[in-house]
Amino acid sequence: MSFSTPPAVGIIGLGYVGLPTALALLESGLTVIGLDVDAARLDAIREHRVDLVPDDHRRLRVHTGDGPGADRFVLTTDPTALRAAETVLICVPTPVDDHLVPDLRALSGACATAAAQAVPGQTLVLTSTSYVGTTRDLLLGPLAERGLRVPEDLSVAYAPERIDPGSTEHTQSTTPRVVGGVSPECTRRAADVLRRTGAEVHEVLSPEAAEMTKLLENTFRAVNIALANEFATICGELGLEALEVIQAAATKPYGFMPFFPGPGVGGHCIPCDPHYLLWQLREKRVASPLIDTAMTAIATRPHAVVQRARDVLADRGVPLRAARVLVVGVAYKPGVADLRESPSLEIMAALGESGAEVAYTDPLIPSVSVGGRWLRSEPEPGERDWDLVLVHCVHPRQDLSWIGDDVPVLDTTYRLQDFKHRVVV
């Protein structure tokens, strides 16, 4: 097969990973075929109604509409368009369900699409986080059913995404990529494409090694966040400021990495990825008590926040069932308009189920569904009286000066020091 010139890269899934990846590859001079099952998402991309860092917004303007590079960015819902690509990257979400069991529907569908449209000579690269063995199960199997052999007919590799949404410090171009192919040639071909994003590439010997690398990364973070939350509780019992202690420990130049407590963990990485490992280990009847305990602690953290809110209100003689509670910031992290797995949703739902009148303010998220009803962000929160202000997430340059000295502030960020009636979890 003859591929288009300049070489085309197909990307399945244009979410928080796929879209920035597409923009980086476009910037390098490649043609990108962006495939997404959601036509509304493609319209949002064309109209620039997407959550990106400023530099990626600049790239998007260049490669859409009347931009000079718009002819190299094809947005489509037609999977047959992938046949014109030299390389296909699979960038779809891998969430867990309400029972913390991996939900592989999007990933299985995307891999099936890639395999069904694959042509000899292509390189298929899976980037979504999943269990060890996913690449072989979901790509090599379907390809073999079509009579396509790897690596003889085409290349297959795994290269976990390392996107930090909203971050201008840890960019795609400065964050190394790990790549493991089914063969050395598969690894080389995948690495050659990923280097076009500006990233350094670290090659490992197999897709399984690369898959386990991503699981280790986020399990490491999960365990240490659970530890930070536990230390924060201990510090509170001993009358100490957790942030002060962590920052002091972080002055040690070796053997310590700072992690910080909070209201829980959001996004589709830390609260989800370790469960793919736990799910696989349970199937093999392999115990992992440390990881199990950490993930349980993370899952129950929002409930600890609600209980602390209940206690703070009770100390002021206000029952939770009659309280007016304002949540500040509902995004899962500062600087993003992203609600994926945000602890705020569970916190607000639990407060509402207890009878509290719950409202929120967030400059980046105009509305949110909680407990089956829609709430709109309070534009002027200082104009209402609140029994409790629960600070969940503070965006850069967000003004909190409207919070009065008479209202209790439950600071789940542990970073606010200037409020008279501040408490932590």
From TrEMBL:
Signal peptide location: none
Domain (UDP-glucose/GDP-mannose dehydrogenase C-terminal): residue spans on this chain: 326-418
Region (Disordered): 163-182
Keywords from the UniProt entry: NAD, Oxidoreductase
Pfam (any one): UDPG_MGDP_dh
GO molecular-function terms, A-Z: NAD binding; oxidoreductase activity, acting on the CH-CH group of donors, NAD or NADP as acceptor; oxidoreductase activity, acting on the CH-OH group of donors, NAD or NADP as acceptor
GO BP annotations, alphabetical order: polysaccharide biosynthetic process
SUPFAM superfamilies attached to this UniProt entry: 6-phosphogluconate dehydrogenase C-terminal domain-like (SSF48179), NAD(P)-binding Rossmann-fold domains (SSF51735), UDP-glucose/GDP-mannose dehydrogenase C-terminal domain (SSF52413)
Similarity remark: Belongs to the UDP-glucose/GDP-mannose dehydrogenase family.
UniProt-listed NCBIfam families: NDP-sugDHase (TIGR03026)
Protein name (Swiss-Prot/TrEMBL): UDP-glucose/GDP-mannose dehydrogenase
